[in-house]
Write a structure and sequence with these properties.
globular, two-stranded antiparallel sheet, 8-stranded mixed β-sheet
């Protein structure tokens, strides 16, 4: 399999780096959006099996890579952008994905799809809901679950820590310090106030998969392109069964063909050792996409 390192700038002049796997003139190009604290090497096994024949994968370090990270920019003052899981602003994913698509178009792929894993799923749907005229043909979601709903997995002591962390985050944002790191040890890694609120509150823009509320997602309903969603039978971060989440996802089906949900049996959150099952489902789905 051919591969090459790539580097590109976003419309807002942030430099991102990644890998191009597979054909240089692909029929299907998958732009991979990794999840929290992950990187271009996340889900490498799946990206490798997808980048075969006439298909290719573009995987890159988005602003959520690492815990605390800095990205170079093309701006005149040569400032570096503070990001990583701790400081990423969720809505900046629009700029990251715009940059990836612009770079991908130089390879002249016949079709482009987003493929997001974990938090990359939220970014995929948010992007498609905001970029109605996008050149994307659709999105593939790997483990589209809610970070906010995962609080339900906590024991009473953990929920008390969450409430204290939330109050601290809200106070910092109110004081004009959204990027101040929390002192609370609710999460075993650094995180700033705005990012905590983005991940762990019910009404944030990042709470795309709001099955906790029982309501439908406005962002999901706005997406016009086809969606293929994979749920893992044994997802260690899900607070409810894959069947329950699938029922909620399927309630957004506007045409009967718009959103397809597949549960991968014996799979964990990362679909470890289940990559070929996922690939076969993707190949079948692609045949139905115009």
């Amino acid at each position: 399999m051919n591969f090459s390192f790539v580097s590109f700038s976003t419309p807002k002049k942030v430099n991102l780096k990644g890998l191009w796997l597979g054909s240089q003139r692909p029929d299907n190009l998958f732009i991979f959006l990794h999840g929290l604290n992950d990187s271009i090497f996340s889900r490498a096994e799946l990206m490798t099996v997808l980048a075969t024949g006439k298909d290719a994968v573009l995987t890159f370090n988005n602003r959520g890579s690492g815990t605390i990270n800095y990205f170079k920019t093309d701006k005149k003052n040569k400032e570096r952008l503070l990001a990583g899981v701790a400081h990423e602003v969720f809505t900046d994913c629009l700029d990251d994905i715009d940059g990836a698509i612009n770079h991908a178009l130089t390879y002249k792929p016949k079709r482009i799809f987003l493929i997001g894993h974990s938090t990359g799923c939220q970014k995929s749907i948010y992007y498609l809901s905001k970029r109605a005229q996008s050149k994307l043909k659709g999105a593939i979601l790997l483990a589209p679950i809610s970070d906010y709903a995962s609080i339900n997995l906590l024991a009473p002591a953990g929920k008390k820590k969450y409430q204290k962390a939330l109050k601290e985050a809200q106070a910092l944002v109110k004081a004009g310090k959204p990027h101040a790191l929390l002192k609370n040890d609710f999460i075993p890694r650094e995180i700033d106030a705005q990012r905590f609120i983005s991940l762990y509150t019910a009404d944030s823009k990042e709470e795309i998969f709001n099955y906790e509320s029982g309501k439908k997602s406005k962002d999901l309903l706005r997406v016009k392109q086809p969606i293929l969603a994979f749920l893992a039978e044994y997802d260690e971060y899900a607070d409810r069964s894959a069947e329950d989440i699938a029922t909620w996802l399927d309630s957004h089906n506007k045409t009967g063909k718009h959103l397809k949900t597949v549960i991968i049996t014996e799979a964990d959150h990362g679909f470890t050792d289940q990559e070929n099952k996922v690939k076969q489902q993707i190949k079948t789905w692609l045949k139905k996409i115009k």
